[in-house]
Write a structure and sequence with these properties.
homotrimer; alpha+beta; Thiol Ester Dehydrase, Chain A; 2 domains; eleven-stranded antiparallel sheet; 5 helices; 11 strands; serine esterase (chains A, B, C); long-chain fatty acyl-CoA hydrolase activity (chains A, B, C); carboxylic ester hydrolase activity (chains A, B, C)
Amino acid sequence: RIMRPDDANIAGNVHGGTILKMIEEAGAIISTRHCNSQAGEPSVAALARVERTDFLSPMCIGEVANVSAEITYTSRHSVEVQVNVMSENILTGAKKVTNKATLWYVPLSLKNVNKVLEVPPIQYARKEQEDEGKKRYEEQKLDRLETKQRNGDVILPVINPEPHTVGYSQSSLIHLVGPSDCTLLGFVHGGVTMKLMDEVAGIVAARHCKTNIVTASVDAINFHEKIKKGCVITVSGRMTFTSNKSMEIEVFVDADPFVDEPRERYRAVSAFFTYVSLSKEGKPLAVPQLLTETEDEKRRFEEGKGRYLQTKAKRQAQMQQAAQ
Amino acid sequence: RIMRPDDANIAGNVHGGTILKMIEEAGAIISTRHCNSQAGEPSVAALARVERTDFLSPMCIGEVANVSAEITYTSRHSVEVQVNVMSENILTGAKKVTNKATLWYVPLSLKNVNKVLEVPPIQYARKEQEDEGKKRYEEQKLDRLETKQRNGDVILPVINPEPHTVGYSQSSLIHLVGPSDCTLLGFVHGGVTMKLMDEVAGIVAARHCKTNIVTASVDAINFHEKIKKGCVITVSGRMTFTSNKSMEIEVFVDADPFVDEPRERYRAVSAFFTYVSLSKEGKPLAVPQLLTETEDEKRRFEEGKGRYLQTKAKRQAQMQQAAQ
Amino acid sequence: RIMRPDDANIAGNVHGGTILKMIEEAGAIISTRHCNSQAGEPSVAALARVERTDFLSPMCIGEVANVSAEITYTSRHSVEVQVNVMSENILTGAKKVTNKATLWYVPLSLKNVNKVLEVPPIQYARKEQEDEGKKRYEEQKLDRLETKQRNGDVILPVINPEPHTVGYSQSSLIHLVGPSDCTLLGFVHGGVTMKLMDEVAGIVAARHCKTNIVTASVDAINFHEKIKKGCVITVSGRMTFTSNKSMEIEVFVDADPFVDEPRERYRAVSAFFTYVSLSKEGKPLAVPQLLTETEDEKRRFEEGKGRYLQTKAKRQAQMQQAAQ
């Protein structure tokens, strides 16, 4: 579809959140279709996890987004989907790869939302494809368990913060979940959640560096808990790390089923977003260093540095491999 | 994309206007891409006309709309696009053809919106395809001239109308044209206009019969004049004809460039929409007969009857042909 | 959240209606949460009234709106909420107070929408806070009764009106109430209604003065009757008074439960909006004087003048008090 002014920031760059939402919709369609391809109990595929996703080149207002999706692996209860996004300038014909994302879905019964159904197996062209898929499946399963433990943190407000401290840029928004945010089962689309997370992370980044910012990448996101229609969700973000030219922001999503539910507010999702700041010519700008004050902030900064260096090393290894 | 509650009425049927908007967006993308496929002045394809479009089967919330578009003819300054819409129930896998629409676009220069550029010719597989396309092109050109003359009419308000008269159900809405309604040239997308027209026509139909209604077909729509960002548009509808089970509504779109512009309000588009009323089981219901009062209303009723009988005869001829 | 192009007019000023909608959403969330804070029948807080609200400074595209809400008084069956809106330019860090609004909510049972539940009392830091709250509660109750009686008026259409008369700028729109407009109870959010009212009032103001306009204030709005999903609402506005630099517009909301309901069209809300016209530099411009023709128009003009002078006197008294 054609990118509109509301999909973009004032510099004309399409929000990462808009793209994540399109990716998730494509993934939900293909995996729901697959899970219902054999006779049996009807199901709706729910997003369980998105692997780390890089934004390879910015998309602009007026360009057309081409989204394609393919199922690359199935386990007994989950589907791995590969989604590619290309931006196309229909005036010049220029096309660019914007994103390559990997998503995991789980089929939930349409009649009983707490029942996970079985996934029809796909055929692999080569045995190695199945083996590699299985490896990816085991890896993401481990990672999901780990993040579940990390999830207890809360963002507290800070009075009169100094510029460039964590408290200075931290932000949160609340959103009342409406019908168009939800699937047939009455739960929030993963893509809607990711769009809100990107919105908050973008505000944190812009408050910190005061210049035009764009989403550079999103770390793996695990969807631990479903969010129901009628909930109020609070999305909070705080900066955890800055390199010379990038900012890492941690985002939490809390759901508050405040009507007709005995349940307490709970943590539904958390993730790390990385932003860069771009000049008018599209060149990356230096960003102010994050000032850490408390012990926790210093620890999170070091952890962010670890993720940053790991990603950098991985990218360099890939480039060397590609060059050989 | 997946149909959401906001795309549909309370009975769960997707609004004809939502479908028309998707059709037009697909047409605008493919024709703009084609018009810029050769070196030269960049252009944006503007919708000039939509041929009569039937809604063959209703689409529902939760279904996926598959839209495909193909260029079927090019004249020197215009492009004919054929767009097909299929509804897919991703739970059952059932697919149905919802619409087959034909649209005409004209490339306008990105630098000078009043300049119509030349269209790169397409290659035809067979000579007859070109000849048939040329015939369609000549026919629509004639029809465009005709409707331009009919366009002077105005809908006057009626005080305390009787049930089932024209004045009883006539309706109008105003809409302030925002950035997301517009193309790169700053003019309203034809699809946005058609969605508003369907909204008004649907309200007229529901006011008349007080039951659940769906769009059955749209007569050829000619876009005589562009509408600029910042205009207020008034969309008015009045019932012109009823058969036993269908209602015909005439819709006018007037644009009012009311801020910082010396120009007067002008008629931009007009068209006929046909609606049917459906029971909960999806069966067509009888509709109350339209009560005509003035000479003009009686004349318009007879004209509507003419269009109705002509369409009916054409459809029977097609069915006989198909049966042979 | 960040203000987008669709939230604003073509001069980049955010519509008053967008801000009113955010205010109401914040109020609905905090009061629903409060009313469900004790064990008992679950309820949804419905907007009953908004006190007079001034727009202290304009908000622009790209700025972040910070909305905070606090419960300031509870009676047996109603909750008073104070909502503050700040605009923040995240590039410069500049913050401005945009609005201070007071809203009244009533908890309706989730199981039986016609049953008003009891509100858990709040604790007051000082006895005077409770006394002042009670005084505000009694005052608004009186005012609600009064406006209920005023509510019978209808806006009649005028053929070929002269510029700057009442008939020249009067406008109305219709809107089909969709799922996203509604609360969990299936009734229209007060904020959605106020956004439509601001849209119509803004079009009336712009038609009158033909220049860029912004909402300056909204008089107290009473929500007499709920509006159900599937209704068509007609929002009509007419100018009642002009001072040198401001325009007062009266807005009516009528609901038409036209499908499968025996009920007649009814008046749901009415209110007065005040607009000013701004130059490109943000300075207030002189507006053309309203030409009154009928006796009713002259009377309404005088009443509007009364409200204008009263507000002016009140503001001057406040400024003197503040200066002491």
